[in-house]
Amino acid sequence: MEQENDTQFSDFILLGLSEEAAMQPLLFWLFLSMYLITLAGNLLIILTTIAASHLHTPMYFFLSSLSFSDICFISTTVPKMLLNLHIQDKSITYKGCLSQMYFFILFAEMDIFLLSVMAYDRFVAICHPLRYATIMKPQLCGLLLLASWIMSLLDSLLRGLLVLRLSFCTDLEIPHYFCEINQVIQLACSDALLNVIEMYVATVLMGVIPLSGIAVSYSRIVSSILRITSARGRYKAFSTCGSHLSVVCMFYGTGLGVYLSSATTPNSRARAFASVMYTVVTPMLNPFIYSLRNKDMKGALTSLVSTVTFSERSECFSWGRRSSHG
């Protein structure tokens, strides 16, 4: 028991993506740029959804929630990595590691549930367009969002509590740039069988089942689209869900890539590089996918930017006139 208490207050070492000193500045500026782009893009989606009244619909309500989740998701890992790269210190405290694991799981699962809810929203919009307003009421949207938060909070809390029961020895090096729960469990000296079982159960409940729900929704959507006679009608129906389908494929595709890379190669550093795709690249690209492929969002973004630009120019002009009179 004494050994467990000692190791709990030891620092873990995050080996990162590369141990070469020459690569550290390049990685710092690369990930800083990607982080700032992610923050700006997702904040713009949220602000546009709030500002444009015609976007006050269930689809954009869930999209803005996804953008908020993506901001929190990437903020769980990247700032700590940037700090370690900047100060050349790869350590993270036990409590910091546990907190990072908790929030990483929380917002990763929020993304999964939100993508599932958005698939259901698209299913109702395309397969039951006349009943869409009566089915997707604000109360139901709020309940779906609340349920996503509750399930994510409970599972991340359960996983965190199960990690708390583990004791760690002297080898505390994590071949990753954040505290991935699978890597941390492998460092445990005590029996981690319960943790492994929970991980497999959570993968089915929080991963496979939501993905199956998305697959069922899109199978019904595709069958409905194929029954539409006009090519224009088919294109319009598909355009309402094309952005979401692209994000789903990218999110689950990169997640599957991480799983396959860890299964086919013993090199944990390869897993870390693969993880960049769904932990950093996917949250960064989501706003671009939704803004470029969605006419309503593109128009609202253009209108918001034009309004802000016009306001700034008007303020500058007014300030210039006051200065000249002064």
Quick synopsis:
This protein has 326 residues and is an all-alpha fold. 80% of the residues lie in helices and 2% in strands.
List keywords for this structure.
326 residues, mainly alpha, 3-stranded mixed beta sheet, 11 helices, 80% helix, globular, receptor, G protein-coupled receptor activity
Structure description:
- The structure is a single chain.
- With 326 residues, the chain is an all-alpha fold.
- It has a single domain (2-301), classed as Rhodopsin 7-helix transmembrane proteins (Rhopdopsin 7-helix transmembrane proteins, Up-down Bundle).
- Helix content is 80%, strand content 2%.
- The protein contains 11 helices and 3 strands.
- The protein has helices at residues 2-8, 23-51, 58-87, 94-127, 132-135, 138-164, 181-186, 193-226, 231-264, 268-293, 295-325, and strands at 12-14, 91-92, 173-174.
- It has a 3-stranded mixed β-sheet.
- The radius of gyration is 23 Å and the shape is globular.
